[in-house]
Each structure stands twice: as C-alpha cells, then as structure tokens.
Known about the structure:
The structure holds two protein chains of two kinds. Chain A is α/β, with parallel strands linked by helices. Helices cover 44% and strands 18% of the residues of chain A. Chain A is built from twelve helices and twelve strands. Chain A has helices spanning 10-19, 34-43, 81-88, 106-111, 154-166, 178-198, 202-207, 209-228, 237-244, 256-262, 273-283, 288-302; strands at residues 2-6, 26-30, 45-49, 53-55, 58-60, 71-74, 96-99, 117-122, 125-130, 133-138, 142-146, 171-173. Chain B is globular. The longest helix of chain B is centred in the middle third of the chain and has 21 residues, at 175-195. The termini of chain B are far apart. In chain B, helix 5 (151-163) links the parallel strand 11 (141-146) and strand 12. Chain B has helices at residues 10-19, 32-41, 79-86, 104-109, 151-163, 175-195, 212-229, 238-246, 255-261, 269-281, 287-301, and strands at 3-6, 25-28, 43-47, 51-53, 56-58, 69-72, 94-97, 116-121, 124-129, 132-137, 141-146, 168-170. In chain B, strands 5-2-1-6-7-8-11-12 form an eight-stranded mixed beta sheet, sandwiched between helices. A four-stranded mixed beta sheet of chain B has the order 4-3-10-9, covered by helices on one side.
Amino acid sequence: MKVCVVGCGAVGSLFAANLAQLDDVEVWAYDQAEEHVEAINERGLRLSGAGDVVGRLRATSDAEELPECEFGIVATKAMHTSPAIQATAPVFANGCVATVQNGLGNEEALAEHVDRVIRGTTFPAGKLLGPGRVQWEVKGDTTFGPFEASPAPLREIERLADACTRAGMPAQAVADARGPQWRKVIFNAATNPIGALTGLTHGRVCEDTALRRLVSDLVDEGKAVAAAQEIVLDADPEDLIDHAAKPEVAYDHKASMLQDVEGRRPTEIDYLNGGIVRFGDELGIPTPLNRSIWALVKGLERSW
Amino acid sequence: MKVCVVGAGAIGSLFAAHLAKVTEVAVLTRREEHARALNEHGLRVSGRHDFTARLTAATAAFDLPDFGLGIIATKATGLEAAAASLEQRFPNATIMTVQNGLGAEDVVRRHGEWPLVSAVTFMSGTKHSDTHVEYILDTATWLGPYGDTPFERVQEIAGLLVDSGLRAEALPDLRPAQWSKLIFNATVNGVSALTGLPHDPHFAAEGDVADLGHLVRELVEEGKRVAAAAGVDLRDDPWEMNVLATKRGSAHYPSMLEDVEAQRPTEVELINGALVREAERCDVPAPLHTALYRLVKAREASYA
C-alpha cells in the first residue's frame, strides 16, 4: 500500500520513517522545505532518541510527482492544512486522508478537498534537528476514527492503524475518535497559551495556585463544549495537567506555543482556543475565557 | 505655597518644572546623580511647552525645606518608600497622590496624618534624560478631596496648577474620574503588557471574531459592573476613552508594557489588583479582569 505523509515536520517524520520500515508499505513525503526533501532522498529520514530509525522513502516538494496513494497522513501545522491538501488532493482521489494535527477544524479543512477523511489524534512528539534528521522525544499512541461528515470506511481506518502499529507507532481504530481529540485540545488550550502569555514553564504555571485555577476554568469551558456534543473524554485533562507538572515528567517543558512566540512564529491558537470558541458558539455554550485568551494571543502575534 | 515633588519621572518632572515657574519647588529623587544634575542644569521642558525651570533637588527628605504641598509622583511600586521618607515631618503639608489605580491614599495615610488630595492625571510625557522631559499630551489633571480634606484646599491646589500652565480641575468627588481611569488602565495596560502591543487601533478593532476590541469591550463592561456595584457613577465611558486614544497619531506605550519588557515590577497591584479586590468586596463576578490580573502577575513571576 502507498502512504503519503503531507507535511514532514517532526510528527510527520515519525510516521514516515517508521512506516517506511514495512515491506508492504511504500512511503512518500510531501514537504515544502527543499533542503529537508533533498536530505531525505539522499540519506534517508533519520530518527534518534526514543527510537533509532532510518526511513528510506521518497520525498518531494512537487505534488505532481506523487503517485496515487491509498492513504494520506496530514501532519502540517494547522494553519497550512488547506493549501497542503489543495495541492495534494488528486493523489487521494480514491484514498483516505487522516489528520494527526493539533486542534479543531483540520478534518473540516480536509473534507473540502477529499471525500474520505480520518479523524486522528497522536501523542508522540519530536523535534526537527536539521534536514533529514528528527529527534524522537516521546513515544505515544494514536487514535483514528471516521470524520462523521465525510467518513472513511472503518475497515480502511483499521488497515492504516494496523500498518502504523506494525511499524512501531501504536494506533487504534475506533468508531468515535472525538474523545482523545478533545482531551488533547482541552489540555493544550488550557496550558499552551498560558505558557505563551506568561513565559512560564508548565510546572511553574501549575504551582501558581491562582494561575492553576485559570487553567481549570479554561478546562471547564472546553469540557462543557465537549459535553454538549455528547463527546466522552477518554481521560480527564485535569489529571493529565497535574501529571505533566511533575518534575520527572514535564515540569520544565516550555509549551510549543511559548516556543513559537519566542521564535515569533504564528501559533496554532485559532485551532485550539479559537476552535473551542467556534464550537461553543455553534452549540450555544459560552466560552468567555477561551475567547479572551484567543484574542490575547492573536494580539501578541500582531505585535511582531 | 512651596511645593515638594517626590519622584521625578515623566509626570513628576512635568509637575515640578511647571510649578517652578510660579513658586519654589524642591524635588526628591532616588538617585544622587539625578538630584545633582537637576541642581546644576535645571529641568528642561520641550514639546507642548518650551522652557527650562530652576529648582532644587535632594535625595533625602531631611535636606528639604518645609513645604505646603507635597506631590507624590513616584510609580505605584515606589509609593511606599516615598511616603515613608516623609513620615513624621512636614506637619503643614497637604499631600497629593497621582498614582494610577486605587489605594495610593491609603498607603500614604499609613505614614502620616497630612490632609490628602486624590488626583488622576491624563497628561503624558517622555523623559529624555534626568533634566529633559517632553510634554506630549496636555490633557487635564483632576483633583478631589480625600477623607475630610476641605474642598477649598483642593481648589487652591488646582488653581496653582492652572497658574503654572498645566490643565487642572478640582472636583468635589474624584471617584467618577478615578474609576473611569481605573477601568481604562486595568484594561488597556493589562492587555498591552500581555500582547506587547502599544495602545494602538488593535484595541478598538472588532471586525474579526478574535479581534482585540471585543476583549477590550468585555473588560470595560465588566469594570463598569464593578463600578456600579461600588456606587460609582463613571465620569467618562472607558470604552470611548479607549477609542479616542487609539485615534491619536502615535500609539502610546503604557508603562505596564515598558515594565514587562524591561522585566521590572509593574503597577498591577494598584490597578488590576485593586479592581479585582473591589469586585470581590462588592460580590460582583469579574472573571476576565481576574484572568488578566493573574496573567500579568505570572508574567512578573517569569522574570529570571
């Protein structure tokens, strides 16, 4: 089977390099960074850290070069979803496309260009070290399920999950994949922008009791929006937040949004807090704090 | 009426230089070289007015001649030390506070029984050096009695300010003006400090759902509900103050933004903290101002 990873940054690379280990899977990567593409084609895609892997695959910045594929795995930053899928959509004319991106709204963006969409949430994380080289920082599970409005068939989702699992990226196919997605979104929306606005690491955010209360208030708004859609969270974001604050877990972790702010790169706020607000508005659930945080981070981006 | 100005930042310098044209003025500074420079070179005003004032300066209160009016013009963060330096001295003085926010008078009261005058000032300036201040906005200073200070005393001081070339007005009850500025400052300074934006048209923009104007409006509305519960009839609508200020040619850099950029303590306690405490006292919910207050406090905590 042919799989094309669209957006071969840190997370995309984890899927691409691992899937390339399988004899029955041919992996392609579509990415705009030409140096990265050249390095992958010349020397392979190298992962180090949680696992040492060299993936042999074909990479390109030109969507015309891609063969028709049965599966797409979209891993761009959320704001690049639309142009990326617009360019690659013909490749998936008969295939299914999964998102493993952060936030809310990616499935909807994919469905504007392809017919069979897979809702995905992934927890492994990494960091781009240089062209063709990625640090695999954390292993973790992935959940795939149909996107209700433009669903991929469950047996196809199972084929993708099976391939990922065999490749060392444990994945599960489920009928309703919204629980893990909302759990992750609520976690990220309650913690990432607080780090970005204050400059504090995750652990320091959590040990400031007043600030930790603000985090909980943000979580509660997200939970209310999820509950209004009858989404059952697969874990309580509060427990995950407290767990991550432990010194041996992620006390010193600077939220990716804080790293974006420090590097003056656009953040994914529109898809995190902005996503919660949009769903809240549609469902008539008030989200005043998420709305405020969204506006503050947008303001921060506009100050550059 | 001899005058002593404590603290010669932009506002203190503007008061001192103007008043020196009509009476004897002494300035109490923190730094020795600041006092020496003022004694040697005088204090130059440019911008709206253009002159150089002669005055005396000292760094210790026991070096000051007796005075009838003391203006404490330090930032809120220097208020306690300034009031302490006057303790048990100057029995004939009336003390005027011009700090942003609420509660400056209470801090001074803890250090002496002087009659107190509350003031809010809308003039602004930029200090180019210890001996040069540019007078930028020649908007008024409003004065009102605090406690049982006679109103005639307030009128006398306002008259002195007007004679010196500044705009000033005595009000029997300052709270409507003080609270208008409190809500304005808590909103604008807090949002500015967190976003890095100077007070520019973003603060009035309401075109897009995530535009900052929506948040500013919500913060103002919340502040107005607190004022109403506290029995204060606002003099000016803080939202209109905001819109008007953003229409001026050049964007103002709120001191709270300058403070966080320089990693200095901010005036958040007397401004945002005061508003949040008033909300609690009056039992009015203020979730957005509470969030803003917590975030700015956390930003201060992030300084290395």
